[in-house]
Prior knowledge:
The protein is an alpha+beta fold. It contains six helices and nine strands, in the order E-E-H-H-E-H-E-E-H-E-E-H-H-E-E. It has helices spanning 26-61, 68-100, 112-129, 149-166, 219-224, 231-241, and strands spanning 7-14, 17-24, 109-111, 133-137, 144-146, 172-183, 188-197, 245-251, 255-263. The strands form three sheets. The protein has a five-stranded mixed sheet with strand order 4-6-7-9-8. A two-stranded antiparallel sheet has the order 1-2. Helix 2 (68-100) packs parallel to helix 6 and helix 4 (149-166) runs antiparallel to helix 6 (231-241). 23% of the residues are buried. The structure holds adenosine-5'-diphosphate. Adenosine-5'-diphosphate binds next to helix 4 and helix 6. Its EC number is 2.7.13.3.
Amino acid sequence: IVNCRYVRGVGAVQGGAVVVSFTDVTHLEQANQMRRDFVANVSHELRTPLTALMGFIETLRGPAKDDAGARERFLEIMDGEASRMNRLVGDLLSLNRVESEERVRPKEELDLTAQITSTIHSIRPLAQDAGVRLNLEAPDAPVLVMGDADQLRQVFTNLIENAIKYGGSGRRVDIKLIEMERDVAVRGPSARVQVIDHGPGIDPVHLPRLTERFYRADSHRSRELGGTGLGLAIVKHIVNRHRGRLRVESELGQGTTFTVILPR
Length: 264
Ligand code: ADP
C-alpha cells in the first residue's frame, strides 16, 4: 500500500474478524487519466476550427451577405479551417492504426536507400516553396531492413517536413543514411537515418516530451504552420513497431538532429 498511489479495498467479516483486501489500481487509474486527457485534447483541437467555421457562417448569412469581397475572403479562411480539421482527423486515424499494429512485426524486406530517395523526391516541391535545400548522403548500394514501406515513408516524411517547417527558411536540411555493423542502440547491425536541420533548435526542457500526443515546443508556431501536434507521436509508434530507436539532439541557435535507428 505504501508504494501505491491508488488502491481499491474490499472488506468482509469472516469468523468475527474484519478482513480487508487491497488491490493496486495505480496503472488502471493512470491509463484512465491519459484517456480522459486525450479526449479533452481532441475535443479542444476540433472545437477551435469548428467555432471559427460557425462564426464565419453566421457572418456570411448576416452582415457580409451582400459583400462579394468579404465573402471571398471568408470562404478562403473557412477553407483553411476545414483543411485543418481534415488533417487532424487524418493524423488521429493514422495514430490509431499505428498503435494497434505496434505489436505486429513488419514482414517485408525493403531498401532504405530507395525509400528515402523517393520520399525526398515527393517532398522537394514543398522544400522549394520554403526555400530549403534537401541534401541526401547515402550509400550507393541498397540498405535492407525488415519494414513497412508506407509507415517508414510516413516517418521520414514527418521528420523532413518538420525540419523544413521549424528549421528556418532559406537553409539546408541534411538527410544521412548510415550503416553500422554493431550498434549498441539495437544490439546488432543497424541503419541510422538522420534528419539534420540548421534552424533555431529546441529548448532542452521540451526534448523528453516531444513524442507525447499534442505536445508542442512552440505552440503558436506549430498552429500557424498547420501542425496537429501528432506527427512525432506517430513516428514514435512506427519506430517502436520496427524495434528501433528514435533520438533527438538539439542545440539552441545551431539546429536539431532526429535519428531513427532501425535493426538490419
Ligand atoms: P506538429 O504538428 O506541431 O509539428 P509534431 O509532433 O510533429 O507536431 O512535433 C511536435 C513539436 O516538436 C512541434 O510542435 C515543434 O514545436 C517541435 N519540433 C519538431 N521538429 C522540430 C524541429 N526540427 N525543430 C524545432 N522544433 C521541432
